[in-house]
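Hey, I'm writing a tutorial for new members on how sequence and structure tokens pair up, and I'd like a real worked example in the thread rather than a made-up one. If someone can provide the structure for the chain below, I'll link this post from the tutorial.
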Amino acid sequence: MLSMLKLLTLSTLLSSALFAATTNKEVEDFLEKSFKNNPNITSLEVKVVERNALDDMSGWEALIVSIDATLKAQPAPKQIKQKMIWFTDGIHLTKELVNIKTGENLADSVSPAFKETQYKKENLICGNANAKHKVAIFSDPLCPFCRSFVPGAIEHMKNFPELYALYYYHFPLESLHPASIELTKAAIAATLQGKKDVVLELYKIEINANERDVNKILAVFNTAMKTNVKPSDLTSKIVMEQYEYDMKLAEELMVQGTPTLFYDGKMDKTKKQYLKAN
């Protein structure tokens, strides 16, 4: 889906050019007109959903734009829903904004803000909900980087319940670690059944990341967790609702990889801000 939309962008826009733009509606109208030049698009809706000032560039804002398009395709039309990042100084609009001294693409530092309503009690794994700082982690339990980082981050924040409210969101990467899908659902089911510290223990499970047999995955999970999660539990309504909520939220927040951290509502690319909290 990402590559398809990038292809559309390249075929309809000159991303390095600058265009006159001021209001949200002007941006939306301009982008809709540009994309509609592609004859393969049969329907299109463009909406600016968020504007964020750039800290290091006075007068410039990052625009988070949602694209909802239908493409001609065989055997059936293809629906594309995605968010893109554009930049404006109130007069110009550009797709690319690069720091020529560092080579940094500023789009890499932009993400939607984490809203208060998105901190769900079901995702709170430690700390007081009214703690001074809110930290959200999106992670895949079989991601090597996650396994080396997430347990330590959790253990650290567990020691300061009035300082951190830590929320955990499951974001298994099926293309890289197929087993993480059912492992994640098993973790949700075990938590709902009353098992404590499931997320932390999840990172200790050793399993072939390419395993797809649900029964084999559950056998390993139940042995490690001392639980009795059944295949039917993984497809229960309440488990699927939690799983789908986490995955949808990751999409809304433009989470691309794991682990991804949000610190007090903003994506933390360094993954170290929580260590400086006081």
